[in-house]
Specification:
Length: 218
């Protein structure tokens, strides 16, 4: 594969599927939820990646009251935060984050503070200083709010940001924010990111003399 070089002033990083492989626990918890509601687990798994839980529930059970989804979501977040079995870094994530030390970047995740803190720790990864979590936004991905907030917090125009994402909802959110998107992992390619990598071992970031970042992928 030919390497692609993107120039940016900040990087915005999703967590689950991008930095942290939490698929094992996401599968366990959502398949249990599917059974309780008589839904097909395989179909449910196509929807849930990248979104906040209550937003996934709204898609899957459109007639259910919002308050019920929020209550269910709170229970599931507690379950997820207590279950770190099988949570590991996406290959290359630790080195990738180390290379970003002192450079403008932010975590933009649909997880809340407790879950994102626990999962990053379980995967042995440092938390970026700037973090946009479920508590920071009024709308879940695929809404672009989280990425736009991340850019604003870093003082960088959306067009000067590059997003790293694995899910359809996340890639759509990055695109809607007017940002370029690097797709990470097996789920990403079908959702139209600007470029795709198997994992973060295929990414190199260097600071240029003019203060911009050179992101080499592939």
């Amino acid at each position: 594969m030919t390497a692609t070089v993107l120039t940016a002033h900040a990087l915005l990083l999703d967590m689950d599927g991008t930095l942290v492989n939490s698929d094992a626990v996401v599968e366990r918890i959502w398949r249990r939820w599917s059974e309780r509601h008589g839904l097909d687990g395989d179909e449910v798994m196509k929807v849930v990646h990248g979104r906040q839980g209550h937003a996934s529930m709204a898609v899957l059970l459109p007639d259910r009251p919002v308050q019920q989804n929020l209550a269910d979501n709170a229970r599931m977040l507690a379950e997820e935060t207590a279950d770190m079995d099988g949570v590991v870094e996406v290959p290359g994530a630790a080195a990738f984050l180390a290379s970003l030390a002192g450079l403008p970047h932010a975590l933009v995740t649909s997880a809340d503070v407790a879950l994102s803190t626990a999962r990053m720790a379980a995967a042995g990864l440092p938390l970026p200083e700037v973090r946009i979590t479920a508590e920071s936004v009024g709308a879940s991905k695929p809404d672009p709010e989280g990425f736009l907030k991340g850019a604003a917090e870093l003082g960088v125009a959306p067009a000067d940001c590059v997003v790293f994402e694995d899910s359809g909802a996340g890639i759509a959110a990055g695109r809607a924010a007017g940002m370029r998107v690097v797709g990470v992992g097996p789920r990403a390619g079908v959702h139209g990111p600007d470029t795709v990598v198997a994992d973060l071992t295929e990414v190199r970031v260097e600071a240029a003399a003019d203060g911009s970042l050179r992101v080499r992928v592939g």
